[in-house]
């Protein structure tokens, strides 16, 4: 994704990706331990799908993580 602008890493509230990751972590937090990297990956993918349904695909595409 090329936007030409980079948000400050010292201002996470200005970076929309931080909001997405905060929500993904919220979906994953009830279960803090995963038996394997594959289990964790599957949980992250499932969380992203739930976000896609909740936020609309346009938001995720604008963040360069949608398909």
From TrEMBL:
GO terms for molecular function: nucleic acid binding. It comes from the Bacteria. This is IS630 family transposase. InterPro entries: RNaseH_sf (IPR036397). It comes from Thermus scotoductus.
